[in-house]
Amino acid sequence: MAKKRTAPRTEKGINTRQAIFDTAIALFAKRGYDKVTIDDICDKVGVTKGAFYNYFESKDQIILEEFMRMDDHYVKVAHDIADLKSSAEKLRVFNREAVKLMADLGVTMMKVVYHSQIAPNMRRPYLMDGRRSLYKITNELIKEGQEKGEIRDDIASEEMAVMLINCFRGQIYHWCLANGSFDLVGTCDTLFDLIMDRLTPR
Amino acid sequence: MAKKRTAPRTEKGINTRQAIFDTAIALFAKRGYDKVTIDDICDKVGVTKGAFYNYFESKDQIILEEFMRMDDHYVKVAHDIADLKSSAEKLRVFNREAVKLMADLGVTMMKVVYHSQIAPNMRRPYLMDGRRSLYKITNELIKEGQEKGEIRDDIASEEMAVMLINCFRGQIYHWCLANGSFDLVGTCDTLFDLIMDRLTPR
DNA sequence: CCATATAACATACCCAAGTATGATACCAAG
DNA sequence: CTTGGTATCATACTTGGGTATGTTATATGG
After folding, report:
1. How would residue B7 be classed by pLDDT, with cut points 50, 70 and 90?
2. Which of A8, A157, A161, B4 could pair with A138 in a Cys bridge, judged by C-beta atoms 3.0 to 4.6 Å apart?
3. Could you identify the residue whose CA is nearest to the C1' atom of nucleotide C11?
4. Using CA atoms, how far apart are residues B49 and B108, in angstroms rounded to an integer?
5. The listed CATH number (3.40.50.300, 3.40.190.10, 1.10.10.60, 1.10.3430.10) that belongs to domain A11-57
6. B20: buried, middle or exposed (CB in 10 Å: 19+, 13-18, 0-12)?
7. Considering CB atoms only, which of B169, B176, B197 is closest to A198?
8. What is the pLDDT of residues A16-35, one digit of tens each?
9. Other C-beta atoms within 10 Å of B158: how many?
């Protein structure tokens, strides 16, 4: 068991995989994720399910792959804010930009991500993978702030990072439930102010 | 369209509905939600799918119905803490007990709830229904605190309640992803302290 | 007391995700 | 050059949630 879904080796394979991915993303954007079947995608590409499942382990894996590219953006943002004065301010801006990225991805995609990640058969969810840049950067910013005395250090930076991220994830989850009917970035800004003032030592 | 799924009218109907519900809960507990098919449930009860879908609109509706009973507990908790001195303290205890209730429900059930509520075809998710006792009580406690000057009032109580609940929901979501492998109540306690100190006016 | 509506199911079916398996083509080693 | 392994797909199937529709029993109003 445990299918071997390796990356494509041949030129043809690479093209096929990419075609499936691109077509899927395009169809999702046009008709909505749940209105597109895997057969729809395969028909348009000109292959069959056999090809699809040779490269992707499920339908939502396509969305997740798109979502995973977010990590590159996080790194970029982290680089852009490197010259800000205070660590607390870095954290604020980083968080704001991260939330903006989610908002830009859109409700539909975020729904699929949050839906599939908590599915019963999910083994090791990507969302809580500690190797993600989101966690690493948040952790480093907090640790940096703690060392500079800008952020209280009675809680481990790792623990604080996870807690903080979870808070915002809760807002995004709610934003998905509400079909994006409120200003996510504004809400998260407000929340950040609320929490951040207390993260700093008295 | 829009099937009429009304409550049972006859004695027989009431019994059947209850038998389906009880059997489903029992099977879920024994074999796990995703290892139990609707046909399994019906077989054990001795009815067919027709009966099932006459009373429930989906499989996870069973879990949700169990989850909805939580509202009664919220009310009970709210009653129990009525004689606490400060509103902030009431809020703290209420929150703590609410999180405990979730932890008691268990990872499996909470997973199903959070999974199904964000499903693509979900219209009006119960989780964000403003009529839930969770929202009403949290809102009232905050408003009470604001009036007594214990909680800052530069943010509307309704908005603050939703934000607060979402923060904890994020922790619970993460707890589900982690398959309950950390102390949810402890984490939420820590988080509450973090946020709450800042909710109070300077 | 009879007509009619509808609750309470059963039967048969659809749909789409995912699987099992098989065919072909290609590459690499002997 | 040939043989074996494997990447790349196609075909056919399974599975399970959900639907459409039909049949029967029962409650209710005239």
Report:
1. confident
2. A161
3. B50
4. 24
5. 1.10.10.60
6. buried
7. B197
8. 999 999 999 999 999 999 99
9. 14
